[in-house]
Amino acid sequence: MKEILFATGNSRKINEANNTLSVYDFAVKPIKIEIDEIQHQDPVEITKAKARAAYEITHEPVVVSDTSWEIPALGGFPGGYMKDISEWFEAKDWLSLMARHNDKTIYCHEHVAYFDGEQLQHFVSSYKGIFIDNPRGRVDDGESIEQVVILYGDLTLAEYLAKGEIASAAEVLEHWRQFGEWYSISGI
Prior knowledge:
Number of domains: 1
Radius of gyration: 17 Å
Helix content: 25-40%
CATH architecture: Alpha-Beta Complex
């Protein structure tokens, strides 16, 4: 089975990638490295910069992943700033922020970028969700927003994670399928 380096220490992301990519007869080989993530309004630019930075450390073809969130009622906030915001906000902060808005829509954008020193490829999948009124589920290694958002079904992301189901949920793995299709026919 062919392997590609995946710069992450996140076991959920590793499982998601491997569960999806196994049908293409390759897997990710996780490598935990420190990447200084740029701040930028555009999450695509953040993901591409992470891929370039990971390559500069590994000197091997590498993939990275990133998640961004977009809340239309808040002008697209937090967008590319989700990493920092998620360290500050608790579930109640998200709910307070959304309390005065009728539009409870949120979009989750899942990004994967590949870089081999020359070729840079980016893949994204987007999922429409909705804020709920009260936090549900526990967040151990995740983000507080996972307790107050439903992307599919009737459970919050935190509830799916607690059940161990998120890594096999087809609804949230399209970005890895896009990468898998491209990588399997790219000849790399």
